[in-house]
User: Fold this.
Amino acid sequence: MDLHYNRHHRTYITNLNAALGAQAEAASANNLVKQLELQAAINFNAGGHINHTLFWESLAPASSGYNNISAVAPTLHDGITKRWGSFDSFKAAFESSALAIQGSGWQWLVQDPQTKGLELTTSKDQDLPKGGKGIVLGVDMWEHAYYIQYFNNKKEYLNKIWDVMNWQTAEKRYKGDPRAAFGSLAGLARHL
Assistant:
């Protein structure tokens, strides 16, 4: 986790700050072409920062008890059971979807803002889920997330992630409480 957090995530923040600084310079010089050239770096690195922040806030030590969904997230547990029939069926669907990601990306449990229904979706690279869906939880499926500990065994990584999933945070997101759920990203919550 140290390498993942202090090297990979930090690099997204460093690169985002550099790109935003360069964009500000280009804007002050009225250099529209340079501003457009920087947009891809801004999108990628901002996505990396947002996704990783949501990921860290979705995890908790196994000893915290936050991994017991029925105890700390009864409303979300009911929503999952309603949608997938059982928590085990949900886990199987989540893992199957995550294992189907080709290359780098993210597996998400999202909520439709209109119907309030739960859905599974993936995103490539550092993209956010599309369609204005509310993020309930996400799992990093980039190799750097699992390779050091699990080598190329993504299935084992996914099996173990449930032991450290912070369902209390997921419950808050599901109930629509951005200040409590999104922590340091609370200002962005209305856009996620």
In short: The radius of gyration is 17 Å.
